[in-house]
Amino acid sequence: MDAYEQYGRALLRKAERILGSRDDARDVVQSLFVDLAGAPHAADFAYLYRAVTNRCITVLRDESNRARLRDRHDEALRGPPRTRVDDDVIGTDFLQKLVKELEDGEAEVLAYRFLDDMTQDEIAEALGLSRKTIGKRLDRIRAVVRRMRAEGERREP
Amino acid sequence: MTAQCTGTPISWWRLERYHLGELAADDRTEIEAHVAACAACSACLARIDADAAIPLPALPKPRTEIARDKPARARWRSLVVPATAGLALAAAAIVAIGRVPHDPTQGDRTELARAKGGDVDFVLVGGDDDVVSEAGGTYHDGETFKALVTCPPSLIATWDLVVIEQGRGAFPLAPAQDLACGNLAPLPGAFRLTGREPVDICVMWSEEGPIDRSSLTFGGPPAAWAKPATCKHLEPSR
Q1: Helices within A1-157 (DSSP H only)
Q2: pTM
Q3: Contact check, Cβ <8 Å, A34/B150
Q4: Chain B interface, mutation test: which of A58, A66, A117, A134, most B Cβ atoms within 10 Å?
């Protein structure tokens, strides 16, 4: 069984959770496998999972994708919201704004923690970082979320 | 109302690995016990199970298989524009391309370029049987080629292809303004190359309308050009 057949569905679900769009998720996953054709690490699920995460973050950050993602958005693709920031779920529109405020490493942690529901230990293992570092990044993410929400409330009383 | 997780959610990462059979027995037991009591995590696992019955969308062909697709090549052969027609720099620019086996010790001379939303790259398809190696190749007299561009779907640009020989450039194709970016999108038309000098084939693009060809100079690496470009180097066959 090749890597696409083995992991493709899991990676599509992963991309759908971040992008909220089936078509855009398919584009991300397919382009990854085309780029990796023949590469030996293509069969490593952890590598592929992380690669899809970062490619999705790139798509989210691109302003030219914003309207299309909003139009195609299907909240059901995100799955049941199980992890929240201060009791709120991060919706796709807010997510697009949020990733632009975060560093690359922080945006990746955001995706793992609040869209994949990974624990700090799981994220630390996936990224090869300490739990303390992941904790700091999560603190920064929560601070940015609170600031953005406060700014949003000030604009829309 | 959406069900809440009854404890610490089983991450999608862990559920996926459970589904793939990659977890140890004690991990599996723990997950099964949690899912049995948690509607939220049970719904996630049910989605994974349901997806297993849905066929995966087919992957685009790997680049190395494209030129083996003879009917596909035959389609674009009918579009060949002799590169000599109407080109002031024809004598310098028209070269014929052949191929040599890829020498791994030379490394990959393909120059990836960045655009908004991802990398831009291209392959040259032509000649007798295969794509030109990612590391470049050689050409022989009278051979025709087509360029297939891989670019981020969000990129909307005018595209041009230039053949550079000894610092002089020629444009054998008309600028392409309606290219739908994606994997291996063909630039309209094809071109024939003849000659006995090394050449660089470059695909360039502009998000600000048509490229002013007369303003371009091709000294130095593509990164130093006014417009973004990605290139492949070709040697004449001996």
Answers
A1: 3-19, 22-35, 45-61, 66-72, 92-101, 104-110, 120-127, 131-155
A2: 0.56
A3: yes
A4: A117
**The residue to which tokens 């190749």 are assigned:** B137
Q: Report chain A's C-alpha Rg in angstroms.
A: 16
Give CA torsion, residues A89, A82, A26, A138, to 10 deg.
70
CA of B42: which chain A residue's CA is closest? A80
Nearest CA in chain B to A117: B11
| Closest C-alpha to A46, from A118, A133, A127 | A127
Nearest-5° Cα angle at B139, B190 to B136: 90
Taking contacts as CB-CB distances below 8 angstroms, the residues of chain B near A121 are: none
Does residue B100 surpass a pLDDT of 70? no
B-chain residues within 8 Å CB-CB of A58?
117-118
Of the candidates A6, A65, A116, the beta carbon closest to that of B12 is on A116
Minimal CA–CA distance to B153: which of B184, B110, B174?
B184
- Per residue in B125-137, pLDDT (tens digit) is 765 545 666 556 7
* Residue whose tokens read 């054709």: A37
- Distance (Å) from the alpha carbon of A55 to chain B's nearest alpha carbon: 9
Closest CA to A55 of A107, A128, A5: A107
Q: Which residues pair with A98 in a beta bridge?
A: none
Contacts with A74 from chain B: Cβ below 8 Å: none
B142 CB neighbour count, 10 Å cutoff: 13
Looking at this predicted complex, what is its ipTM? Answer: 0.90
Give the tokens for residue B151.
């670019």
B69 touching chain A per CB within 8 A = no
Give residue-wise pLDDT tens across range B147-199: 888 888 878 888 999 888 877 888 888 888 878 887 777 888 778 887 788 88
Pairing of strands B185-186, B113-115: unpaired
